[in-house]
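Hello,

Our lab assistant flagged a job as stuck in the queue for most of the afternoon. It eventually completed. Since we weren't sure the result was trustworthy after the delay, we are filing this so someone can double-check. Below is the sequence as submitted and the structure that was eventually returned. Let us know if re-running is recommended.
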Amino acid sequence: MKNLAKLCAATVVVLTIVACNQTPDTHDADVAALKAGEAQWVQDFAAKDVDKVVAHYTDDATLMPPGMAPAAGKAAILPMVKEMLADPALALKFSATRVEVAKSGDLGFTQGTYTMTMTDPATKQVVNDHGTYLTTYMKQADGSWKAVSDMQASSVPPPMPALMAAPAKKK
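-- returned structure --
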């Protein structure tokens, strides 16, 4: 009887330790949080609120827009976003077609499509762009999600160089 009591007590202790070490499954809530965060990000772009747009990034995030050098860190991302939002023609929308969260619950990503209208700085003409994006997120200590890596790939071919675009002269 004494051994049975010891066995029961040991079983209770082991089950308690195992139960305490289980992390709750937050997958569905994390996926919903990433979707809601991106919806808010689109609204922040529409409102042209620089601080709110940049707040979606971690301090050490990297932004990799098409045709430009990557901006590493919020200090480098801020002027890029500020210049972008100053464009009166700017309109940006993006929507995830895939949202994944790691089993650990601290890392996730979204991939999807975007459309953007902006003024070409070289030609001063309004241009339309569209393409795909991939954003990696890290869960913060407060439970929020912030982008650590944000990359866009344009589906619009770059303009042809002037030499190739000009018709050949006859001799």
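-- support follow-up --
The delay was a queue issue, not a problem with the job. The result is valid. Residues 47 and 85 are 9 Å apart (CA to CA). The two ends are 110 Å apart (CA to CA).
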